[in-house]
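User: Before I run my own analysis I want an independent prediction to cross-check against. Here's the chain; please return only the structure tokens and, at the end, one sentence I can use as a sanity check.
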Amino acid sequence: MTLFTAGPAQLSPQIASVLSLPTLHHRSKEFQEIFDFCHNHLLQICPMQEVFFLCCSGSGAMESAICSFSPRHLLILENGKFSSRWGEIAKNFSISTTILSCPWDRSHTLEEVKKALKENPNIDGVCLCGVESSGGVREKYEEICKAIKEHDPSILTFLDAIALFGSEHIEIENIDVLVASSQKVLGLPVGLGMVFVSSRALEILHLRSPLSYYLALQNYLTHPIAFSLPSHLFLALKFVLKHIDLMRNSILIKKRFEETRELLASKGVALYSKNPSFSIIAFDDPQNSIKTALAKQNILISSGGGYLKNSISRIGNFGGFQEYQILLKALQRI
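Assistant: Structure tokens:
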């Protein structure tokens, strides 16, 4: 099967070749040089104050963000299975939450967010997804985070950018904590989580007592390689950062999104989301009939997340390392 799922991405032959290189010791000079390259290049792509690397999936990076900053009361903007994960993580750490839900096919409105903030003056953090992959919805995070900071600049904003990172330029001005991972647009296997923080968030991080041992970002404040890290993933990440221009890649992703939308429309198939993302293309697919037809051509896409499992399907549109024409030709044959 060739993967065009909502994650993980199909592993390209080039990346697979890099992954087969010998393991480097995480305390060696060679690994330190690769680590520094990846660290510096990611901060050029997403110029926040600092980025921390974790040996975990995106969900682990989300949990790290919450347990490291240990907020008192979180507002969770929920419009899918993955945005609800913020609340599940908070509950596990006995952090109080207010859940602001909206239909899974749209973004939250500014009015909804402002109302929730006004009604809950004790909120000190807001969690949201840049792209809610359950239904392929792009949250209007720029407007929302700006409104949050206008309401109260001290509120920390937590953005799940797992399905957003690398698919478009990310407006970081009003984001304090941004979570990304290796297995979508970066085209790597699951296993490398990243947490970017703003200058203010970094200051706060020094003052907070973490709620976890292994996932605490405080571990990395004095030792950037605090624990064992997977050298093969860093070798592959270096390869990706050297060979893929993420700005050009985002243009390619948008172009392929338009091609896919037009092809689906020609077959009478509508996109599910009222505010669709470019990287996760969700479309109406009752009983997953299109997904099943593609599987017969050895192409695997995803069904919907959560209760949408049997009503929509989703395509992972991740850019340069994908042989996307294979998918488009298969769709044309249905």
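Sanity check: The two ends are 17 Å apart (CA to CA).
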